[in-house]
Specification:
By secondary structure, the protein is of the alpha/beta class. Helices cover about 40% and strands about 15% of the residues. β48 and β49 form a beta hairpin.
């Protein structure tokens, strides 16, 4: 078997067979003419001048027998799509199969159910059959209307996405979705489904009455918008420089007081004090003041992008990024702090997420729960407009982890939003009802753990003693963060004093490994001291256990933030084992978001991709629940998937991108996609690679990867340290040559120059190490993967925190990404830096299109002009969202709201 292409250019698995003897008998003793090894000695000319043996179609009887045999031996996704008979297989001098000389597949599809072809009976069926024929490369006279797209015709997820896209382009059906094809996998069933009018409003949550249609801007406004971007962009740059100036002021004054001569031991104390003053001022003092000022007069409505209201909202988000929300999330102090920022927060709440925007427009009532990384977004950008409306969580309501609540959403009293669910603009969850999925659908009730918690007696609020312990825990965490950078600072300062400027520069370059080791040591030592044992089951959260759980979570969050490039490397697994996780040989892990390592089991060869959440604890009504989670042997958890605690995935299984696995678990060898999850009968084959390139690499390749990934882990910290060292050195020179006011005014420009230098270093590294990204498929252990992962680590752990992160939502981010190779149209608004493999913009976002928060657009997909993709949604490989349409869901499906409505 080998990976080849269809007439539509789609890769698929093809089988070629030869005969051990000259002839093969049928089950009734007759000779199968399609299996006669001596009957075909023809050859086809190859593209390189060589010859290719001609393929010959097998008989229907042989096809049926081989398919039955394959179905009994291998998973559905490994059953080839076509079967051809060759007199012999082409070989190289080494005796290996010469795959480039294999002929194009011309044989029969490996379809089941005998050879009977049921022709289309209606015009709608004929139109659907024509699409299937074009995508699958199968003549229409060989397509039966009762043949299953996946199990009979060899279809897989990429072919499904392309089929649905062509249906949309040809106007067949009312917004067909990939989920429709999986639910109706035959021509007859799909045609009947698409020809039946549907009330899509019944599949989503109730939408409250809101403002009328949001009209696109007038021609006059659209001509003026690019001009408005310029003054707004300059105002954004000025605001960022103002923040840097406030943070750098104490350090600049110390330099000025010493006349720039800071390479003396007497300056160490004042500089350390100035640094601490800057840290606490920017983190704790300034955010409440600025957030309150920026929120004055903020009202619900629709506002022009790049206008004054947008500028205020953007500035609010920038200030909140330096505020301690992520450290306070999950603690007894989160509610009081959000009240300080202007939010309306009730009593006895659990707020486990720091992803809160525009606090003045957020209201959370008594006894409500907000889970890990739930996004409360009172404002969004869509189609040249900014939509602003309150987000309300009612009394006793539940918002699950990784959920997204858009402007105008409301979860009413004792209502619930399940994990990984999206509520779009103005959707309301009725009192006592539960919704889940993307798009949100009504559920019978909460999951069993939450249902069990709801039956327990109420838990009192936090006591004063608990609040005091929480304050002490917060102080300990803040001191820990300061202690994490101290060894690297001492190293550089000591070398500067002993060896001069050059020695200090070398020490700064070598401080990266010191910093990484310090962070890991601090987390590795302190976490088991804080939370030595995790008791299974349900326990009161407003207790010593709850405080210790919050501190343990925060320590892991610090590890993920400060040593981000450590993850997705060979160093991740031993690090997690040290923390208590049970991880098998050959497993790969890209993240540790909200895990409890002691309760996590990853079997041999398993893979957990970036941004996935696996086994997070559940909080509600003052309780928390711990349950073990197991990922099976050679199973895969996709990017941004959410695997609830207590889930068990079977060996060889797959949980796709953004997917929540089924509540009953994931059986061996099965594949799932979506929220709620749908079963994928057949996977797209990724190619045939030897085990040494996938699961069992040679020792030399392991050593090579360890060396490259050591650079990936430590280089970002070293680059940032060198940049800071040179910035302070430059500031010293400025202070020695000018007055204190000039030094203070120059400081933000010098720091901005340092950030720019970090970004340009990453740009040079990208072009030197990888060059231009081109479409390709590589096994995990290839050198190319190592090089691209090195660049990704530098980008995410150096360029983004140093500069690009604060440029999100400004006109300056698109040109910065263009230097890295991305092709971004003029006037595009980007609120994210999650863009890698920059040159491969086979993901096409059309003019005037919008992609919502936490959505994923996979490669080879297209979002056409004016199309809108909602939050927490997925556009699959090869899928196309048609012009001026609206989509939402995992995977995407037609949204009942017209484009531009609220």
């Amino acid at each position: 078997m080998t990976l080849t292409g269809t007439g539509a250019g789609t890769p698929e698995l093809a089988a070629y067979v030869t005969l051990r003897r000259g002839r093969v008998a049928d089950t009734d003793g007759k000779v199968d003419p399609g299996a006669n090894g001596s009957a075909d000695g023809r050859v086809d000319p190859g593209t390189n001048g060589s010859t290719k043996p001609a393929a010959r179609a097998a008989s229907p009887e042989l096809v049926a027998r081989l398919r039955r045999a394959l179905q009994n031996r291998v998973p559905d996704y490994m059953v080839p799509a076509s079967l051809d008979v060759l007199a012999e297989l082409p070989t190289m001098p080494s005796g290996k199969i010469d795959r480039p000389r294999l002929p194009p597949p011309r044989g029969a599809r490996l379809r089941s159910g005998g050879s009977t072809i049921v022709a289309p009976g209606t015009e709608f069926e004929r139109r659907v059959a024509a699409v299937w024929s074009d995508v699958l490369g199968v003549p229409t006279d060989q397509l039966s209307t009762d043949a299953d797209f996946f199990t009979d015709l060899g279809g897989h997820s990429l072919l499904a996405a392309r089929t649905v896209s062509v249906l949309r382009e040809r106007g067949i059906g009312d917004g067909p979705a990939v989920r429709d094809l999986y639910a109706h996998p035959t021509i007859h069933a799909l045609a009947h489904h698409l020809s039946t009018p549907r009330a899509r409003g019944a599949t989503v949550a109730a939408v409250a009455a809101g403002p009328g249609p949001m009209r696109r801007g007038s021609r006059r406004w659209r001509r003026a918008a690019p001009l408005l971007r310029i003054p707004t962009g300059l105002a954004q740059a000025a605001f960022l420089l103002l923040l840097v100036a406030l943070g750098a002021l104490p350090v600049a004054l110390v330099y000025a007081s010493f006349g720039g001569a800071v390479a003396v031991s007497a300056a160490l104390g004042p500089l350390a004090l100035a640094g601490l003053t800057s840290y606490f001022t920017m983190r704790w003092v300034l955010p409440p003041v600025l957030v309150r000022l920026l929120s004055v007069g903020l009202r619900p409505g629709r506002y022009r992008l790049w206008g004054w209201t947008y500028l205020r909202l953007w500035a609010l988000d920038v200030v909140l990024t330096v505020a301690p929300l992520r450290v306070l999330a999950g603690s007894a102090l989160m509610g009081p702090y959000l009240r300080l920022l202007g939010a309306r927060i009730g009593r006895r709440t659990h707020l486990g997420s720091g992803m809160v925007s525009a606090p003045a427009l957020v209201s959370i009532a008594d006894d409500a729960t907000v889970g890990y990384d739930a996004g409360l977004r009172p404002w969004i950008v869509e189609h040249e407009w900014v939509v602003v409306a309150p987000v309300v969580v009612g009394e006793g309501a539940f918002v699950g982890a990784s959920a997204v609540l858009e402007p105008g959403t409301r979860v009413r009293r004792r209502g619930g939003v399940a994990e990984h669910t999206v509520l779009t603009r103005n959707q309301h969850v009725p009192e006592g009802r539960w919704w889940g999925g993307s798009p949100a659908r009504p559920l019978d009730g909460p999951d069993p753990v939450v249902a069990e918690i709801q039956e327990l007696p109420a838990v009192p609020g936090w006591s004063r003693w608990d609040l005091a312990r929480s304050v002490a825990g917060l102080a300990a965490l803040e001191l820990t963060m300061i202690a994490m950078v101290t060894p690297a600072v001492v190293l550089v300062w000591t070398m500067l004093l002993l060896g001069g400027v050059g020695a200090g520069l070398v020490a700064a370059a070598l401080s990266g490994p010191v910093f990484v080791v310090t962070v890991c040591a601090a987390v590795g030592v302190l976490r088991p001291l804080v939370l030595p044992r995790i008791p299974l089951g349900t326990h009161p959260a407003r207790s010593s256990l709850g405080i210790r759980k919050w501190m343990a979570d925060t320590l892991l969050e610090l590890s993920l933030t400060l040593t981000n490039s450590l993850y997705s490397t060979l160093y991740t697994v031993p690090w997690l084992r040290f923390l208590g996780a049970r991880i098998g040989r050959g497993a790969e892990v890209s993240t540790i978001a909200h895990i409890d390592p002691e309760l996590l089991v990853l079997r041999d060869g398993s893979f957990v991709a970036d941004m996935a959440s696996v086994g997070a604890a559940t909080f509600h009504r003052g309780y928390l629940n711990f349950t073990p989670t197991e990922i099976g042997r050679r199973s895969f958890v996709g990017n941004a998937a959410y695997v609830p605690a207590g889930t068990r995935t079977g060996s060889g299984s797959l949980v796709g991108v953004l997917t929540v696995p089924p509540p009953a678990g994931v059986p061996d060898g099965t594949s799932w996609l979506g929220a709620p999850a749908m079963h994928l009968p057949r996977r797209q084959d990724s190619g045939d690679y030897p085990e040494r390139e996938t699961f069992h690499p040679p020792r030399r390749r392991v050593a090579e990867r360890l060396a490259i990934e050591f650079v990936r882990v430590t280089a970002p910290a070293s680059i940032l340290a060198v940049s800071l060292y040179l910035v302070l050195l430059t500031l010293s020179e400025v202070a020695s040559a000018t007055t204190a006011p000039v030094t203070a005014l120059a400081a933000p420009l010098v720091f901005a120059g340092g950030s720019l230098a970090v970004y340009l270093t990453v740009v040079l590294a990208k072009w030197a190490v990888v060059g231009r990204y081109r479409p390709r498929r590589e096994p995990l252990w290839s050198r190319f993967v190592r090089r691209t992962e090195l660049v990704t680590g530098l980008y995410e752990a150096a360029a983004v925190p140093a500069l690009l992160g604060v440029l999100a939502g400004t006109p300056w981010l698109p040109p910065a990404l263009r230097l890295l190779g991305a092709r971004i149209g003029w006037g595009a608004w980007l609120g994210t830096t999650y863009l890698t493999e920059f040159d491969l913009v086979h993901v096409r976002i059309g003019a005037g299109a919008s992609v919502g928060e936490r959505s994923v657009v996979l490669y080879d997909a297209t979002v056409e002009d004016g199309a809108a993709l909602g939050p927490l949604s997925l556009v699959m490989k090869g899928e196309r969202l048609t012009r001026h349409s609206r989509w939402i869901g995992i995977p995407a499906q037609s949204d009942p709201l017209p484009v531009g409505e609220t």
